[in-house]
Amino acid sequence: MRALTVIILVLATIWCAGNVILGAVAAKGVFVHAPPHADLISREVAGAIFGKVLERWSFAVDVGFLPLIGVLLLLLAGALLNLKRIGVMVLCLATLGGIAGVHLWSRTILHDALVAAPPTDPKAPYSDEQRETFNTLHKRSTNVFSAEAGLLLLLIIGCGVALGRQSDPVVTSASPTNH
């Protein structure tokens, strides 16, 4: 069980860190070159670039992290079921369901936002309605993406607590088993 918990902890940490890096670092790095901060690229082009990066990250999560963490959590829950720890098993499964649900919701919002995005050609007209739809979807996507990172953080904390409780006893020189 300890090995499963460590693997889940590492994968969840990478996934959570990827979300934070994309949201806090990459997005700001792309949009710093767009108006009103600079005029190297348009906001629409910056959005298209970041949208594609986010889409690729989301796909990597879909085919890599989510299924692997899901299988590992199910294995952990099965092991806990044998140990009669029903509460922890239900918590593992609820966490998995929450993370998967929020991720899939995030993926749907991202797809809708990319479809509703204004054209990247600065000469192509787009309506105020298109802009408003995109802004609404962008705000919703940001909130859901943050919720996903928050749930992953809870999983990381839970794995850390579980590992702390599973720690091996420390053998000291004063221990009677050392003689």
Keywords:
179 residues, mainly alpha, 4 helices, 78% helix, elongated
SS class: mainly alpha
Low-confidence stretches: none
Got a strand count? 0
How many structural domains does the protein architecture include?
A: 1
Structural Rg: 22 Å
Q: Helices and strands, in N-to-C order?
A: HHHH
Into which percent range does the helicity of residues fall?
over 70%
Can you describe what's shown?
This protein has 179 residues and is mainly α. The protein has one domain (2-165). It is built from 4 helices and no strands. The chain is elongated and about 70 Å long.
Topology of helices and strands:
Layout: H1 2-31, H2 43-82, H3 86-116, H4 128-165
Put the structure in a nutshell.
The chain has 4 helices and no strands. With 179 residues, it is mainly α.
